[in-house]
Amino acid sequence: MDIEEADRILQDIWDRDAKAWDTHWVPIFRKFAHDLATDARISIGQKVLDVGTGTGVAATEAAKRSKPSGMVLGIDRSATMLELARLKCSKVKNLSFLMMDAERMTFPDGFFESAISNSGISYATFHETTAEIFRVIRGGGSFTFNDWHLIDVPAHKTFSEILRRHRTEHPSENLNRCRAAVATMEHVGNQYSDAKIQAELESVGFTSAQAKQRLYKVRLPHIRDYLAMRFEREALKQELKELSEEQRAAFMKELRAGLRPFMRTGSFIMEWKVTFTHVTKPH
Predict the structure, then answer these.
(1) Which residues does 89 contact at the CB level (< 8 Å), separation at least 6?
(2) Which H/E stretch holds residue 176?
């Protein structure tokens, strides 16, 4: 499967995941957004662009810091996510959302003083997107973004390994395409080492790259809360649907046993490593 097709399939899934994302994942990504805005050094009066805004987590954080005279624009290509973002942020006066492809923005050159992205850039269009971000921020402005990989979150890695052992060997055409899309994008993402990311940023003109890793300890009340977080996503709903009752029972039994070590002192604890990168556009 080529990257473009994989990206389209995952975008469709992303649209259908909006509610689950907002319920289970946003509280975690809000922690990342806070540190992202800190690294971006967003201040009063700035015009800020949030790329791949989703339901507006990082955009809201930026809006708090740039008000009252600043302005924040969040862009995303998911109408469903943007609908939720507008609903949640309706009372934030210096924040707006637009449906737009990050690699083909309609803003004029040098329109923003700062750009951010809270795990919102697809590696399928990383070069094109960062080139556009470079174009729309002014000289002396900055771009700050973060990202993480499944392998860097032990609970997610354990979940995926157990799923691979139990998932059906005879998937429907729809599930097979979904799996292929995920595998394609994971392969692309794994190629983006820190060195490759820095090289890509430099190739479009950014300088002074600074990268740092933060390790978060994310606490959930119980394993069942983590399972809800995972199984309310569309791709995993389909995986469960295509298992027999017996297969599903065996899968859930091994999964609960595999996740039990993450229960510590009465909470389900995930260690979640996130890389933050800050670059500038020369004057």
Answers:
(1) 56, 59, 60, 63, 95, 97
(2) helix 173-190
Superfamily of domain 3-280: Vaccinia Virus protein VP39 (3.40.50.150)
Task: Say if residues 216 and 272 touch (Cβ distance below 8 Å).
Answer: yes
Rounded CA separation 123/200 (Å):
11
Nearest C-alpha neighbor of 272 from the set 261, 257, 262: 262
Domain borders along the chain are 3-280
Quick check: helix, strand or coil at residue 92?
coil
Query: 70: Cβ–Cβ under 8 A, 6 or more apart, which residues?
Result: 42, 43, 44, 45, 46, 47, 48, 63, 94
Does residue 191 carry a pLDDT above 90? no
pLDDT digits (tens, 9 = 90+) for 29-59: 999 999 999 999 999 999 999 999 999 999 9
Q: How many helices (H) and strands (E) does the chain have?
A: 12, 8
pLDDT digits (tens, 9 = 90+) for 64-104: 999 999 999 999 999 999 999 999 999 999 999 999 999 99
